[in-house]
Amino acid sequence: KAQGRRDAVAASLASVTTEIDTLENDEELLTLVSALFRKLIDQEVTEGVKAVEHLQTEGLQAVFDDQDISVKAAIEESRGKVSVELVTVQKKANGDIIEGVAKDDFGGSVLTVQSVLLRVIIMLRRGHRPLLLLDESLPAFDANYIANMGNFLSELCKRLDIDILMVTHNPALFDAADRSYRIVRKSGESKFERVR
């Protein structure tokens, strides 16, 4: 009887030991898989951030063609969450470098370019219909650069195969559009009139 109990306990112990070994192997494998997923996610975030930096810099340089201006990203991780801050960098002719967040340090025109480009990026990354709606979105834009902004938006549409529907009172933006319309009042009704 005692021998039977010992054999049963020994068999149970062997079974539990085997199960522990299996669980330890599973834990090790899951740790490796988790590390692989983290690396893949980090790589995806890094590539996405670099694409944002590139497009933002390209847009700023196209619009502000007389300035050395770019965007760099500061990536931080805190409590398992990644945050990205876009830092605008301007190199002055005298060698001075200004770095900061566009809304705080660079004014409305720079912020507007970055804002429009972030909307484009989000629209494309989310797989939304490639249509960007801009309703008087460029009011704070410096008159010296408005034509450049219009040309950049036109080029962006061609390159990324997107459409932009823009409401504006600025004639310089009409000239950059493939098609533009004016709303006119005729006989008490508002009608669209093609400008080009």
Overview features:
single chain; 196 residues; alpha+beta; 3-stranded antiparallel beta sheet; two-stranded parallel ribbon; 5 helices; 54% helix; 24% strand; elongated
Summarize it.
The chain is α+β, with helices and mostly antiparallel strands and 196 residues long. It is 54% helix and 24% strand. β2 and β3 form a beta hairpin.
Describe the model.
Helix content is 54%, strand content 24%. The protein has 5 helices and 7 strands; from the N terminus they run H-E-E-E-H-H-E-H-E-H-E-E. The protein has helices at 2-63, 102-105, 108-125, 146-160, 171-176; strands spanning 68-78, 81-91, 97-100, 131-135, 163-167, 181-186, 189-194. It has a 3-stranded antiparallel β-sheet with strand order 1-2-3. A hairpin with a 2-residue loop joins strand 1 (68-78) and strand 2 (81-91).
Report low-confidence residues grouped into runs of 5 or more: none
Mean of all residue-level pLDDT scores: 87
Calculate the terminal CA-CA distance, rounded to whole Å.
102 Å
Structural class estimated from helices and strands? alpha+beta
| Rg measurement, Å | 29 Å
> How many helices in DSSP terms?
5
Overall, the morphology is elongated
